[in-house]
Task: inverse folding
């Protein structure tokens, strides 16, 4: 338990994009560890999950400042504190579908460092790049602006941003992946700035997880552990980084990818 937390209280966590997949798995893991939850997603799924887990939730988008502020306000009104934040936003599939005609299939060959690929990288419109930056990096900046004053008042906190493996080894299957490097840079700067106040920020970089779409059985051959990652495994990594057990880890990018990538 966090040493800054009153002994009679359970820690409070915000999780975004929590209706399904990675976000829902993290919410369930945190609830099992005694966290009180505030959830948000664009669908009503976060409301249903929050009710199931005994928390609170709103329907909203991480790209909307008003929605983020409303989530933080609801959390403070309900619990009076914010100990942990998980910034989850998905893998920008909506952006790809709106701006790129065909989303290529993920296969073992496409996970190699030099795939024989003719995808038109230069055909991605500016709108997709801007939307990607908004979704995978600026959402974390917005949340940090909203929660940091509360964490400063209470004497600390922990933030985990869900990034992706495509940032450390860019692949054409994830053409907007390099945008996540901006998130990593922000996380390091934030960790440097806020560490003296007891606030930590780290990024978790999932590999090919069990909820991956557009996959091929051959892709597991490229993964040293020869399998996709479990959502529960990823959720446990996030829970560790939010806990006092990782109290000396800040500003780091943690790959959870079965050994597929070569690190930072």
Result:
């Amino acid at each position: 338990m966090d040493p800054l937390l009153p002994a009679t209280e359970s820690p409070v966590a915000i999780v975004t994009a929590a209706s399904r997949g990675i976000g829902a798995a993290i919410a369930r893991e945190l609830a099992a560890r005694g966290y009180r939850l505030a959830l948000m997603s664009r669908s009503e799924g976060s409301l249903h999950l929050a009710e199931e887990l005994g928390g609170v939730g709103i329907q909203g988008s991480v790209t909307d400042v008003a929605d983020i502020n409303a989530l933080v306000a609801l959390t403070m009104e309900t619990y009076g504190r914010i100990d942990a934040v998980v910034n989850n936003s998905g893998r920008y599939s909506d952006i790809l579908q709106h701006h790129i005609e065909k989303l290529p299939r993920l296969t073992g060959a496409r996970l190699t460092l030099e795939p024989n690929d003719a995808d038109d990288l230069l055909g991605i419109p500016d709108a997709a790049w801007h939307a990607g930056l908004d979704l995978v990096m600026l959402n974390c900046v917005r949340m940090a602006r909203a929660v940091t004053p509360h964490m400063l008042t209470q004497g600390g906190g922990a933030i985990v941003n869900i990034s992706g493996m495509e940032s450390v080894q860019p692949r054409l299957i994830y053409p907007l992946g390099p945008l996540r490097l901006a998130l990593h840079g922000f996380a390091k700067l934030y960790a440097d700035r806020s560490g003296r106040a007891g606030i930590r920020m780290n990024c978790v970089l999932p590999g090919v997880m069990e909820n991956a779409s557009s996959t091929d059985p051959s892709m597991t051959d490229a993964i040293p552990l020869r399998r996709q990652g479990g959502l529960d495994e990823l959720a446990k990594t996030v829970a560790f980084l939010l806990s006092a057990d990782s109290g000396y880890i800040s500003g780091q990018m943690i790959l959870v990818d079965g050994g597929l990538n070569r690190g930072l």
